[in-house]
C-alpha cells in the first residue's frame, strides 16, 4: 500500500508541479484529502486481510451511497439511490454470517473515508488547476503511511522487482483513477458520482466469477443488475439535466 501511494505521489508531482504554497481553505482541503486517502486505503487493506473482496467493497460503498442520499435534490434521484441500496443489500452477507467483525467494521470505516474523499476531491478540484491538489494530497497520504510501510515491508521495499511492481500498480490503481475521478467530480454532482460508484461492488463480484471461478447465485445476479440500472439511470439523469440547461 505504501509503495503504491508513494509512487503515485511522485508521478503526480512530476506531471502537475503544484505550487509550493497553497493558501486558505484550499490548503485545509488538500490536507484533509490527504488524510482521507491514507485512512481510506489503510482501513480497506485491513478489511481485506479479514473478509472477502466482494463483501469488503460492498460494505465500503456505504460512503458513496451516503453522499448520494445527502446530495439528492429531486425525488427522481432517490430512485437510483434506492436501486443501488437494494443491490447492496442483496450482495451483503445475511444474518448468522461468520464474517470477521473487525474486518466488517474496517470496511465500513473505509466507506466513511471514501465518502469524505468524494466531497473533498470535488472541492479541491474546483480550487486548484488540473491535478495539483491531488498531487499534494497524495504526498500527504504517503507521509502518513510511512510507518505502516516500514513496519510491513522494511528492507523488502527496496527490491528491484518490488519497486517495479509498485510503480506499475501506483499508475494503474492510484495516479490514473484518482485523476479521472477528480475530473469527473469537476463535471458531475457529488451525489451522482456517489451513485455511479455503485458499479464497484458489482465489478468485484464479476471479477470473482470470471477471474477466481467464484459462482454467482441468482440473488447476486439480481444485485448486479440493480446497481447497473442505478448507474445508467444516474448518467441519463445528468445528461437530461445538462441538455435542459444548455
Question: In terms of topology, how is this protein built?
Answer:
Blueprint: H1 2-16, H2 24-48, H3 53-60, H4 62-71, H5 75-91, H6 101-127, H7 132-144, H8 146-152, H9 160-187, H10 190-196, H11 199-211, H12 218-245
Helix pairs in contact: 1-7, 1-9, 2-6, 2-7, 3-6, 3-11, 4-6, 4-10, 5-12, 6-9, 11-12
Your description of this structure?
The longest helix has 28 residues, at 160-187. Helices cover 80% and strands 0% of the residues. It is globular. It has helices at 2-16, 24-48, 53-60, 62-71, 75-91, 101-127, 132-144, 146-152, 160-187, 190-196, 199-211, 218-245. The chain is mainly α and 246 residues long. The chain is built from 12 helices and no strands.
Amino acid at each position: 500500500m505504501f509503495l503504491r501511494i508513494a509512487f503515485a505521489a511522485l508521478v503526480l508531482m512530476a506531471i502537475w508541479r503544484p505550487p509550493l504554497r497553497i493558501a486558505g481553505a484550499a490548503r485545509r482541503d488538500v490536507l484533509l484529502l490527504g488524510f482521507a486517502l491514507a485512512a481510506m486505503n489503510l482501513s480497506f487493506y485491513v478489511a481485506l486481510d479479514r473478509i472477502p473482496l466482494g463483501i469488503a467493497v460492498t460494505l465500503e460503498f456505504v460512503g458513496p451511497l451516503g453522499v448520494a442520499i445527502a446530495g439528492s435534490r429531486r425525488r427522481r434521484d432517490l430512485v437510483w439511490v434506492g436501486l443501488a441500496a437494494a443491490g447492496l443489500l442483496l450482495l451483503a452477507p445475511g444474518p448468522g454470517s461468520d464474517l470477521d467483525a473487525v474486518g466488517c467494521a474496517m470496511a465500513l470505516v473505509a466507506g466513511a473515508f471514501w465518502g469524505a474523499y468524494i466531497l473533498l476531491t470535488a472541492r479541491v478540484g474546483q480550487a486548484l488547476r488540473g491535478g495539483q491538489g491531488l498531487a499534494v494530497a497524495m504526498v500527504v497520504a504517503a507521509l502518513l503511511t510511512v510507518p505502516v510501510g516500514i513496519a510491513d515491508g522494511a528492507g523488502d521495499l527496496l527490491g528491484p522487482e518490488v519497486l517495479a511492481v509498485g510503480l506499475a500498480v501506483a499508475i494503474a490503481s492510484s495516479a490514473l483513477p484518482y485523476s479521472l475521478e477528480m475530473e469527473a467530480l469537476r463535471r458531475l454532482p457529488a451525489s451522482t458520482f456517489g451513485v455511479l460508484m455503485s458499479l464497484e461492488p458489482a465489478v468485484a463480484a464479476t471479477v470473482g466469477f470470471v477471474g477466481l471461478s467464484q459462482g454467482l447465485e441468482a440473488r447476486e445476479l439480481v444485485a448486479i443488475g440493480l446497481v447497473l440500472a442505478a448507474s445508467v439511470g444516474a448518467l441519463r439523469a445528468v445528461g437530461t439535466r445538462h441538455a435542459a440547461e444548455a
